[in-house]
Amino acid sequence: MHGEPRDGRIVIVGASLAGLRAAETLREEGFAGTLTLIGEEPHTPYDRPPLSKQVLLGTVSADKTGLPQRREVDAEWKLGVRATGLDPVGKQVLLADGEKVPFDRLLIATGTRARPWPNPAEAALDGVFTLRTIEDAGRLAERLDAGPRRVLVVGAGFTGSEIASACRERGLEVTVAERGPAPLVGALGGTLGALAAKLQRAHGVDLRCGVTVTALEGNGRLTGARFSDGTGIDADVAVVALGAVRNTEWLAESGIAAGPRGVTCDAGCRAFDMYGIVTDDVFAAGDVARFPHPLFEYQLLSLEHWGNAVAQAEVAAHNMIHAGPRRRPHLTVPAFWSSQFGLNIKSVGVPTFSDQVVIAQGSLKDARLVAVYGYRGRVTAAVSVNQAKSLEYYQRLIETAAPFPPAPGAADRIESPEPVPSDVPDPKVLSHGPTVALTGHLPDRRLTLVQPAR
Amino acid sequence: MAADTLFHRITDYANRADPYPLYAELREAGVARQEDGSYLVGTYHAIEALLHDPRISSDRRKRTVPDETAEEGLPPAFIGLDDPEHHRLRALAMRSFGPPHTPDRIDGMHDEITRIVKDLIGSFRGEERIDVVDDFAYPLPVTVICRLLGVPIEDEPRFREWSDAIVAGIDPTPGEDPTERPRAAAEARKAMGLYLGELAEKRRTHPSDDMLSAFVGGDSSEGQLTPLEIMTTSVLLLIAGHETTVNLISNGILTLLRHPDELARLRAEPALMPHAVEELLRYEPPVQMLPQRTPLADIEVAGVTIPQGAPLILLLASGNRDPLRFPDPDRFDPTRDDHQHLGFGSGIHSCFGAPLARLEAQIALNELIQYLDHPRLVEDPPPYRRSPVLRGPRHLLVESG
Ligand SMILES: Cc1cc2nc3c(=O)[nH]c(=O)nc-3n(C[C@H](O)[C@H](O)[C@H](O)COP(=O)(O)OP(=O)(O)OC[C@H]3O[C@@H](n4cnc5c(N)ncnc54)[C@H](O)[C@@H]3O)c2cc1C
Fold first, then answer.
1. Which of the four pLDDT bands, split at 50, 70 and 90, describes residue A417?
2. A195 CA distance to ligand 1 centroid (A)?
3. Which of A107, A136, A287 has most ligand 1 atoms within 8 Å of CB, for mutation?
4. What is the DSSP letter of A162?
């Protein structure tokens, strides 16, 4: 097609979910030029959600989580090598092995990594883990197989809670330490946080909220931990689930608006530079991207959701090979799921973008419900617990900015007809960062966050 | 009563062979209020939205004018209930039918279904003319659901009579004697329920590998069906297990005979059949409409307020032919990739038996088209069954060789 940039060189940095789906989409939509994928991990793309679920339970082994390819992708794969820099003027990506890879258009899909335990000596103790990669999951599953006397999970966000659930299912003793008032409260607010706390305890978790872990103890091997309330426990495994860190350091001197909250881009996935000017040859997608969303007052969202990585990668790839008016915005309503303690939790919208919540269907007592979140009188999110089929209706309400609380009359509206405050805590009080960060439309702030050269 | 409202015409037996022009008229009208106060919806997106709307009840007793016959028979099965009762009963029934408790139940029936299909074909092998309905499309699902539930196939003549009455009872055709059919249906449901309940009771002492045994026995940690619930649930499964799949198979053969190029292609490429079955579910869905819905609040659809308690009829088959949703909707295209049809409904009540219906239809259609040699339709259109809800040929005479 005339004027459509279907040729040339496209480089994708980050060869995981977003990188793979973008590569597939590029070829699907007719990109005929050369395609290079650069990935730090030595593996072909694999799926992370099973790592904290089936892999820890032992029902799927860590090396069986490869992502199915939707189609053949004609590309050069440079795996096991890290990108260390980006030269935006010379238009090349610098690799750790010294190679320079030239590009006409670049997709940044470097995702996130697990936030490490802040004390390096303690983090190095045998028995201390984080969970982000298949190596992490394989090692942790092996250690759980060996039957530790007690597992400590630091941080009760989604990942931490799923790990605790897997341990309990294996019959292991678990202590969960969370600085905030309840598990999942950072993502789902007070009402469902309280439900999660109740369920964890009912499943035999030693749940401690409002405390921080002050020290991991041991001599070569982990033996226990101390808490801010003066207590301590013996434990031979600790999983640090303190949230994620965005992989943007390699962009520090690139002039791209990249910082701890991600790479800022526009609704079409084009990255901003540090002056807030949008580029036209550098794109971002997946966990590393930070983008404005019209349903949430154009605030910048950073999501850590599987579905977002796929949808955004598809839009980015489309826009990389289409000119101006044929480009599409990334407007997908955020959505994610989690399974833990026998619960299937699904979310649409942004529950933290709320001031009130109401149980619109089902009941907390039965742990089968839909909670609907509102912000200033309109529906902004819904979370289902063991009632996933009901969610589509609420997605439509979010998309149409329907009034909150939602219209009455649901057949199974059993309890709590009155909305209550959604009690979303300030992310600063949580152990683990929020999986959705709303950060205001302030791309120029990036100027102050550009990291100094090392 | 004026006999020519849209719903009269849709349900009129004279239009059974081709209701699709009437559905186009309905989509044009948006939401169509009928003179008896019921509302018809026939556009894809509106149906989809209503099927996910928690304010739409499946419980007929929520209608402002409940039918008085409802009190006499068995209580509703889960298809006619709302959450949370619907969920509890459906989940208990699912325990012996599908995931998470028995994920391999249906897949595990692949060989058995193939054997039944081959036996049926063997029984008419060599004959020049067959009735696809009586010789094939009906006996297959009946045999399968009987084995699955644990019902002796020899009793088929008995429950066929009940089944006919029950199907006639859900026929919403307006005008005709409004109490007699539902009354007969309620009686038939009761009789069938007692029959199946008795069979289930015998399984308490002589369990076997069937669903009735699972209903009376097994793990009760997540609750258990009561004897009354076993009756309503097994009646539902026995009826739904065969009254719908028979239409899927016979509508399928009819459609393929009307599209000889597609038939030849599927004959050469049996691996395309799963695709083709999805297209059939869109193009000629065995369940044409859901006549049982009722809003629990005033609900606005396409600018029309449907009042609380009004009968609401969702024309699935019309939604499946909505040009705003499917390009070139009146074309039968087995290679179509878009499978978001309404053939199995959608939302919490989406078809319980879908995996079984798919498997039966895929195997049956593949085996039958391989067997048939230069098949010809004897009559087109064929004579149809009475029901406008469960729509399909009553006989489908095919000559081959
Ligand atoms: C344990 C776990 C459970 C999860 N469960 C769920 C769930 O239930 N539901 C849900 O919605 N989401 C879940 N997620 C989140 C989901 O997996 C992520 O949203 C998704 O992986 C994001 O994909 P991505 O491609 O953007 O980033 P990533 O998957 O993080 O991939 C980025 C890739 O880039 C590579 N990379 C980084 N820096 C460089 C560099 N400089 N040079 C070269 N390569 C680099 C990394 O090595 C990595 O392979 C889970 C995540 C984890 C870790």
1. confident
2. 28
3. A287
4. H
pLDDT at B401: 82
Measured between alpha carbons, how far is residue A233 from residues A195, A238, A432 in Å?
A: 25, 11, 21
User: Tens of pLDDT along A23-81?
Assistant: 999 999 999 999 999 999 999 999 999 999 999 999 999 999 999 988 889 999 999 99
User: Which residues of chain A does B347 touch, with a Cβ-Cβ cutoff of 8 Å?
Assistant: 389-390, 392
Å from CA of A22 to ligand 1 middle:
14
Ligand 1 centroid – CA A88 distance (Å): 25
Alpha carbon distance B180, B341 (integer Å)? 34
Query: B347 CB near a chain A CB, below 8 Å?
Result: yes
List, for residues B336-355, the tens digit of each pLDDT value. Answer: 999 999 999 999 999 999 99
Chain B residues with CB-CB distance to A382 below 8 A: none
Q: Is the peptide bond before B76 cis (omega within 30 degrees of 0)?
A: no
Taking 70 as the threshold, does the pLDDT of residue A442 lie above it? no
Ligand 1 first shell, C-beta below 6 A: A 13-19, 38-41, 48-49, 51-52, 82-83, 109-112, 131-132, 159, 247, 250, 286-287, 304-307, 309, 336-338
The mean pLDDT value for A110-137 works out to: 97
Q: How far is CA B368 from CA A81, B112, B362, B365, in A?
A: 56, 16, 10, 5
Q: Kindly report, residue by residue over B223-277, the tens digit of the pLDDT.
A: 899 999 999 999 999 999 989 999 999 999 999 999 999 999 999 999 999 999 9
Could you give the CA distance from residue A177 to residue A206 in angstroms, rounded to a whole number?
Answer: 9
At B69-115, the pLDDT tens digits run 555 689 999 999 999 999 999 999 999 999 888 989 999 999 999 99
- Cβ under 8 Å to B: A residues 409-448: 409-414
pTM given for the model: 0.89
SS (H, E, C) A404-437: CCCCCCCCCECCCCCCEECCCCCHHHCCCCCCEE
Is the CB of B55 less than 8 angstroms away from the CB of A360?
no
Strands (DSSP E) found in A60-161: 76-79, 83-87, 92-95, 100-102, 105-108, 112-114, 128-129, 151-154
**For ligand 1, atom 5: residue with the closest CA:** A49
Residues of B in contact with A71 (CB under 8 A): none
Identity (one letter) of the amino acid at A369?
A: L
Please state the separation of Cα A317 from the chain's center in Å. Answer: 20
Instruction: Determine the distance separating the centroid of ligand 1 and the alpha carbon of A48, expressed in angstroms.
Output: 7
> Is the bond preceding A120 in cis, omega lying within 30 degrees of 0?
no
What crossing angle do the helices spanning B245-258 and B227-243 adopt, rounded to 10°? 10
Give the helix ranges, DSSP H, for A13-61.
17-28, 54-57
ipTM: 0.84
